[in-house]
Amino acid sequence: MKYDSEINKRRTFAIISHPDAGKTTLTEKFLLFGGAIQTAGAVKSNKIKKYATSDFMEIERQRGISVATSVMSFEYRNTLVNLLDTPGHKDFAEDTYRTLTAVDSVVLVIDSVNGVEEQTRRLMEVCRMRDTPVIVFINKMDRDGRNRLDLLEEIEKELSLHLHPMTWPINSGKDFKGVYNLHDKTLLLFTANTKATEDESVVISDLSAPLLDEKVGEKDAAQLREDAELIEGVYGELDAESYRAGKTAPVFFGSAINNFGVKELLDTFIRVAPTPQPRETTIREVLPDEDKLSGFVFKIHANLDPKHRDRIAFMRICSGKFERNKYYHHVRLDREVRFSNPYTFLARQKDVIEEAFSGDVVGLFDTGNFKIGDTLTEGEDFYFTGIPSFSPEIFKEVINKDPMKTKQLEKGLLQLTDEGVAQLFTQHGGNRKIIGCVGELQFEVIQYRLLQEYGASVQFNSLPFYKACWITSHDKKKLDEFTRFKTGNIVVDKDGHLVYLAQSEWFLDTERRNNPDIEFHFTSEIHKEAVD
Ligand SMILES: Nc1nc2c(ncn2[C@@H]2O[C@H](COP(=O)(O)OP(=O)(O)OP(=O)(O)O)[C@@H](O)[C@H]2O)c(=O)[nH]1
Ligand SMILES: [Mg+2]
Question: Closest residue (by CA) to atom 14 of ligand 1?
């Protein structure tokens, strides 16, 4: 197995949570440990000063929220870590769900004050379906959080996950004194030092030693002794196999913004997290140590660097070795393609690479050849399965507010909708442009980016549709007739395919019943084209 040593060095994971739990803040601290950045930008708390490294889009900086997944790589203790920071808001969940197909494990962040929230539940459902290994980080211990035992019970119950505490906190909020590392038997005293990457822990191999009372006071020392005994009695050592099978989740307590308790997580992650895993395709399972390259595109981003106007397709490598300037087989286009400038990501910086291996995410400069779900191989024809596709649920007409910028607008609409989170439709036989999305906030992002990246100013008018159906028929006359009668509901997608926009389920059912010669299609998995 030629590439074993490369594969064993790699860990690829995503950080997920409900909005605002602290994913981007945690990402920054991880990058500090990897030496990838020198200072972490204070997320949201100080809008004007520095900015989060992974929230690099202008809109993310202004709002202090993440609207798209960022990819970052760093090396820590001879391990190559590929980290994907996802957006928490449900309107951007599409991006997050696709990202989950490109990683081998996740870190789930939980806000100690809010506990399990709506998006936490949804994201964990997806992880449970795939048995994705999970590490839990209970964040914001510097705030008056909930009772720790209650919190753990809630997480276990709501997320159907066995938890295994790896560190244990001493109080929270104003009284937060630190965490005791149950694995290393060390005590980490809380300091609000956001930059520290060095360990400042005290070794307390015997909890009954008076040193503990000295450090945290008699009362808290007594409580910790009691808690630790209880936890060790119940849980024992972490079963790494059970974690990798997605059954047990190690739990850490800390405060991301204070870079507290983060190193403990990272050290355990390096020790137990899975190396790049096999992946299912339409014909067989692909193993990471196969000789031949395979990989799939899970994300596309236009104008990643506004100065260069380049569009990048993010590809997760699933097997073999990816090489610069080598020809690969683009399965959907049935064409050989090569890349002279493949990138890896160090936050905003991009580095051209010569080679990459299973687990890596490479950025491919794209001139319009890629769609989400596309697969590259060395000749074999298959697609990776499980990459979700969403049908739009909200439809709005695009109103051009600046006729001088019509050209820029058209270009912007085409390029931004190529990213795959919004779909562009054009009125059949007309010029009106309609955008379909899953989340309301997507429209704000598009409006903002059209202005920032293309100088085009638009407004959106809501339309009363709820679903898009691609229509086909073997009887061309019937299809023509239908489109003529339903003019107001018929649009074409970017590839010129006819689409019927339905006002409601009732309308859709009625039309299907009344037009048995017309087939209504819904997208399911993305690689299967909507229209056959
Ligand atoms: N008190 C406290 N605040 C924190 C901590 N960690 C993060 N925050 C704050 O929580 C807010 C949200 O942090 P982010 O890192 O942007 O959260 P996120 O999960 O990336 O949010 P989305 O990407 O929008 O879902 C910011 O104001 C942070 O400063 C912490 O340990 N303690
Ligand atoms: Mg974020």
Answer: 22
**What spacing in Å lies between the alpha carbon of 43 and ligand 1's midpoint?**
7
| Spatial distance between the Cα atoms of 500 and 489, rounded to a whole number of angstroms | 6
292 with 377: CB under 8 angstroms?
A: yes
> Which tokens sit at 357?
């291996």
Residue type, 288: P
pTM, to two decimals: 0.89
Residue 449 is encoded by which pair of tokens?
Answer: 């980016």
Question: What is the mean pLDDT of the segment spanning 141-147?
Answer: 90
CB of 41 shorter than 6 A to ligand 1? no
Give, in order, the Cα–Cα distances in Å from 4 to each of 229, 268, 287, 288. 41, 22, 11, 9
C-alpha–C-alpha distance, residues 322 and 376, integer Å: 10
For ligand 2, the distance from its centroid to the CA atom of residue 27, given in whole angstroms, is: 9
CB 138 within 8 A of CB 172: no
* Ligand 1 atom with least separation from CA of 17: 19
- Phi, psi (rounded to 5 degrees) for 66: -95, 135
Confirm or reject: Cβ of 299 under 6 Å from ligand 1. Answer: no
Cα-to-centroid distance, 65 and ligand 1 (Å): 9
Length of the chain: 532
Looking at ligand 1, which residue's alpha carbon is closest to its atom 11? 20
Task: List CB contacts of 14: < 8 A, sequence separation 6 or more.
Answer: 69, 83, 84, 85, 86, 96, 99, 100, 102, 103, 106, 107
Q: Is the CB of 66 under 6 A from ligand 1?
A: yes
pLDDT of 313-359, one tens digit each? 999 999 999 999 999 999 999 999 999 988 887 644 567 888 999 99
Model pLDDT for residues 208-238, shown as the tens digit of each residue: 889 889 888 999 999 999 999 988 888 888 9
Q: What is the CA radius of gyration of the chain?
A: 25
First to last CA, the chain: 39
Which helix or strand (DSSP H or E) is residue 107 part of? Answer: strand 105-111
Strand stretches in 428-506, DSSP E = 433-437, 458-463, 467-472, 490-492, 498-502
Ligand 1 atom nearest 21 alpha carbon: 19
In 90-151, which ranges are E strands?
105-111, 134-139
Tell me how far the alpha carbon of residue 263 lies from the centroid of ligand 1, in angstroms: 18
Q: In this structure, what DSSP letter does residue 529 have?
A: -
Q: Is the CB of 471 under 6 A from ligand 1?
A: no
